Amino acid sequence: MINFNTKDGDNSNYDVLIIGGGIGGLYTALCLPEKLHVAVVCKGSVDESNSYLAQGGIAASIGDDDRELHIKDTMVAGAFENDEDAVRVLVEESQGVIEDLINLGVPFDRDENGNLYRSLEGGHSIPRVLHVHGDATGKGIMDTLIEDARQRKNIDIFENLFAVDILTGKNRCIGAILSSGGHIKTIWSDFVVMATGGIGQLYAKTTNSRVLTGDGIAMAIRTGAKIDDMEYIQFHPTALYSKKEGERLFLISEAVRGEGGILRNIHGERFMDKYDERMELAPRDIVARAIFDQMKKTQSDFVYLDVTHLSRDFLKTRFPTIYETCRHMGVDMAEDYIPVTPVVHYFMGGIKTDTWGRTSLDRLYAVGECACTGVHGANRLASNSLLEGLVFGKRIARDIAKHYETREVDEDDKGVQEIEFKAKRVYNTVDFDRLKNDLKEIMLLNVGIIRNEDDLKKALNFVKGNMELLDKTILDEVGKMETANMYLVASYIIEGALKNKKSAGSHYIQSKVL
Question: Does residue 257 carry a catalytic annotation?
Fold first, then answer.
């Protein structure tokens, strides 16, 4: 993507390079044998991942939970487009990773008897979702993982270091080119784990962190690694509505509906009974489309989430972060309806992996939201995302440990060789801010909750046209490289949506423009 020579700038060698510092990346690092030298590279700060923002909880089949029921719930939510073998791995290994977290010191919420507190969320047949500090589960887990990783002598964490491209040689992954402040750094490694998160910033309205621009997926595409399920993008039904443009929207957790929250249109009418017998606890794709339909019918930008029948003490205790954020925005949860709107939240597609996190490129792994394990199918079940990062991160660590001793070692793969790339780029006057903002708007309007072929084709023509421009433009700053990555990933999303004529889960196709 940029001009570089591996003999220029800093060079370093690691056994394992992990690109991304969310739950999947950090947990993979912590599960690796301590004899391996591990680099964890973060695009921003280590606490800027979506994992850190996760409120709702982590689903886990423990104790008297029926594992087959958790598998069924996951498959139903995913419109049976899931890989059942991957789902079975997720569920059957969930208890083990929860026990690991408890041993690391994660302070899961407990009831008055000291048992793990489990709540009900949309799409789940029974309560099985664990929490930390009510509605700060991601932060609670990540704080523990970050602290532990910083204490490990074999783990180096690099912050504010942008991964530009994966280095390959002899049909395998051998490291990566990175950039910081215009300076190029090369990290050579025996194994690379992509843990770069999702694609939320491709859309004008999202709950995602500012760093989630699909970079890891774009890097994998450029290596020729297999990509799958790119059309499946989950809109979370309930983000706190805001008139401000360009800001990350605050999520109102699934757990609020799990505790009895009621959805009402702007006229105060409850409406979910018109769409699904599970009402507010239907899977996210169904609830999001129902809200979208109500917004269209009432010509409004939001609907309401009503929890005024729950006590103030309960709301403050169960949802302390949401309660305070709403209060700061002028909404008293105990007395006022909460204005909410569907926004882009989670990406089910990505870099295709097997159940050990292995991609189609030798020694390249992927974990978390950038990976397509097949677990989620066409729509993710609530609170399965943190679990996925943990289960498959641990499996990746086991697989790397297994193959490390028997790996083929080539001195040319350890920084001895010189790799040079010169991009044929000449333009340097492109308005990248406009390109980004235009992409975000067209993705939201044309590749949204409800899609049609005409809108998708218009979006693809727009994206392809600007990709031709970007291919000739000098990319000498991180923001410019981000933009190129965003357009590349967007093209795969739209092409996937056009190819898939079947409505399923988050991919809902109208046969005609209404």
Answer: no
